[in-house]
């Protein structure tokens, strides 16, 4: 039944998508996938992605297909992270408190200037901004039309990838963050 629902009798689309997502170095968007797979319709690709996503959601799999940063990615599930880190023999690069504070302000207030960030933090933010720019979690997004024309900052697609977000609207609300902080369950910035 499934083979007739996808790709007009061509179930290999799932295998093709799985292979593409495995070797991709970044999330693949629908536009990119339709360009790579002109023999399949946009709807066939979306249906196949959703089917693959459901198949990988099974508890016995260590992988999942997630929609992040405007595209799709095959990634390991968080439940196997401990063993993957053993393979990599390293720990992921962590951000310090000042960088996390700065990143949080940018994520929730973007676009925002350095002066606005420093006003909220109460301290100089040049160091954290440099770290976040180096890690490509934020970018400059022009200049604000005020005297002095300061740079404005916003988050990047890399930020969405790192924090496993489909888009910026997936960030928890500030009220939800406050509730999580009270129960010590801040999943976004572990």
Summarize the structure in words.
The chain is of the alpha+beta class and 190 residues long. The protein has ten helices and five strands; from the N terminus they run H-H-H-H-E-E-H-H-E-H-H-E-E-H-H. The protein has helices at 2-5, 12-23, 30-36, 42-56, 81-88, 97-109, 114-121, 126-134, 157-162, 174-182, and strands at residues 63-68, 71-76, 112-113, 138-143, 151-155. Strands 3-5-4 form a three-stranded antiparallel sheet. The chain has a two-stranded antiparallel ribbon with strand order 1-2. The radius of gyration is 20 Å and the shape is globular. The model is unreliable at 1-9 and 185-190 (pLDDT under 50).
Structural class: alpha+beta
Unreliable stretches (pLDDT < 50, length at least 5) are 1-9, 185-190
CA-atom Rg in angstroms: 20 Å
- Summarize model confidence as the mean pLDDT: 85
Helicity range: 40-55%
Please provide the count of β strands. 5
- Mind summarizing the main beta sheet? 3 strands, antiparallel
Note the run of SSEs as H and E.
HHHHEEHHEHHEEHH
Strand content: 5-15%
N- and C-termini, Cα separation: 43 Å
The best one-word shape is globular
Q: Tally the helices.
A: 10
- Reading side by side through the largest sheet, how are the strands ordered? 3-5-4
Characteristics:
190 residues; 48% helix; 5 strands; three-stranded antiparallel beta sheet; 10 helices; two-stranded antiparallel ribbon
């Amino acid at each position: 039944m499934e083979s007739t629902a996808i790709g007009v009798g061509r179930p290999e689309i799932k295998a093709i998508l799985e292979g593409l997502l495995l070797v991709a170095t970044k999330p693949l968007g629908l536009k990119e996938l339709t360009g790579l797979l002109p023999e399949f319709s946009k709807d066939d690709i979306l249906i196949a992605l959703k089917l693959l996503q459901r198949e990988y959601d099974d508890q016995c799999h260590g992988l999942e297909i997630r929609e992040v940063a405007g595209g799709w990615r095959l990634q390991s599930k968080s439940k196997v992270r401990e063993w993957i880190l053993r393979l990599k023999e390293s720990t992921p690069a962590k951000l310090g408190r000042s960088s996390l504070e700065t990143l949080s302000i940018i994520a929730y207030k973007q676009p925002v200037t350095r002066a606005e960030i420093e006003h909220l933090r109460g301290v100089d933010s040049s160091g954290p901004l440099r770290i976040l720019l180096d890690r490509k979690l934020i970018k400059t997004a022009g200049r604000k039309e005020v005297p002095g024309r300061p740079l404005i900052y916003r988050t990047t697609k890399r930020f969405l990838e790192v924090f496993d977000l489909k888009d910026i609207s997936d960030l928890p609300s500030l009220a939800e963050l406050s509730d999580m902080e009270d129960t010590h369950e801040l999943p976004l910035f572990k």
